[in-house]
Write a structure and sequence with these properties.
Layout: E1 9-11, E2 24-27, E3 32-35, H1 58-64, H2 98-116, H3 121-138, H4 142-157, H5 166-180, H6 187-194, H7 198-211, H8 222-231, H9 236-252, H10 260-274, H11 281-288, H12 292-305
Antiparallel strand pairs: 1-2, 2-3
Helix pairs in contact: 3-4, 3-5, 4-5, 5-6, 5-7, 8-9, 8-10, 9-10, 10-11, 10-12, 11-12
The protein binds a DNA duplex (17 and 17 nucleotides) through helix 12.
Length: about 325
DNA sequence: AATGGGCGATATTCGAA
DNA sequence: TTCGAATATCGCCCATT
């Protein structure tokens, strides 16, 4: 059966709202309208796209499942590829002679380099590989990886690697995707795992968000709290206290010109002291990617805005 | 599209408590 | 460890070219 029976019908009377491309396909099996250029699912219906059968046991599942992995933005061909495996035994379990293995190796190479990849796709493959590596280092969930992959696709399509490194574009995409899901990473964090310096990363990011319309919300200090706290081995009580402080704060006013990471660092510091789990500013600064001085400045700021009262300056020992 | 100044936020360093 | 001052640097905004 044709493994590539996905594209069923070219729909001409509409264009993709995301990239304006007219290459829309109706996918009858999944009842979706899919943009062939950016992969956007335009019109997802309410029809259940899961298997029509039910599996009551794991064995049933194995026996009845007949479809492959789901389409993924993270594969350059959306997961619809043919791969020549590296197996050293043939279909019947007999060893493959070395001479034939050599032939297969050569076939595999040619296959990879010629058949599968249109010229523009090589960089995409490379980009997606890099993306996956960076995402797993940062522990970023698959949902967001897919979103980052989609952004990367669009960026490549617009030829935005010209004058930039692929790593930079990928890192910027990942950065954007994280922000769009309200689980932002610091630019420092991104640049640490991507070997791209902050400056280039920032530029790449702003270029991407300019050219591709991205709905990127502002980073709120709250978004960092849970991640930073867990990095600092701070308990849920500190986390809650931090949130309390931050809520109190943005009710009043004007944190907007400060870096959110600095504000959250100061709030965490205060909260850790209040809860008797005091951490040195040094550590908090490191985790939050700001300097100690910034923490102190934001701390002053907090002091002025909301009269912080301390439970008698307890000099509790840190951890 | 580059360039440069102004300006506020932040970084770095250092000494005192 | 924390605090604060002095100094340097960064990044954004705006105007100019």
């Amino acid at each position: 059966m044709g493994i590539n029976s996905k594209k069923v019908e070219l729909v001409s009377d509409d264009s993709c709202p995301e990239c304006g491309s007219a290459h829309l396909y109706r996918d009858d099996h999944r009842a979706e309208l899919v943009c062939d250029d950016c992969g956007l699912v335009v019109n997802e219906s309410e029809i259940d796209t899961g298997p029509e059968w039910r599996a009551y046991t794991a064995e049933d599942n194995k026996r009845m499942a007949r479809t492959g992995a789901p389409l993924s933005q993270r594969s350059h061909d959306l997961g619809l590829s043919t791969v020549i495996s590296y197996a050293s035994r043939d279909f019947h379990g007999n060893p493959i002679p070395a001479k034939q293995r050599d032939r297969y190796n050569r076939m595999r190479m040619l296959h990879r380099q010629s058949n599968l990849l249109r010229p523009g796709q090589r960089s995409l493959v490379q980009a997606l590989t890099v993306l996956d590596r960076m995402a797993s280092v940062l522990g970023i969930p698959p949902r967001i990886r897919d979103e980052a992959a989609l952004i990367t696709r669009k960026a490549l399509k617009k030829g935005m690697v010209r004058g930039r490194s692929i790593e930079g574009v990928v890192a910027a995409s990942l950065y954007a995707a994280c922000r769009m899901n309200n689980v932002p990473r610091t630019l420092e964090e991104m640049s640490k795992v991507s070997e791209v310096d902050r400056k280039k990363l920032r530029k790449a990011y702003s270029a991407i968000s300019r050219q591709i319309k991205l709905r990127v919300p502002l980073v709120k200090p709250e978004d960092y709290v849970s991640r930073f706290c867990s990095k600092l081995d701070l308990g849920p009580d500190v986390e809650a206290e931090t949130h309390r402080i931050l809520n109190e704060l943005d009710d009043s006013m004007g944190t907007s010109s400060f870096a959110p990471s600095g504000t959250v660092a100061a709030a965490i510091y205060v909260a850790s002291v209040r809860c008797g789990e005091k951490k040195p500013q040094r550590l908090i600064a490191e985790v939050a990617g700001v300097s100690e001085v910034t923490i102190r400045n934001r701390f002053q700021f907090l002091n002025e805005r909301l009269k912080l009262k301390f439970p008698n300056k307890r000099r509790a020992s840190a951890s």
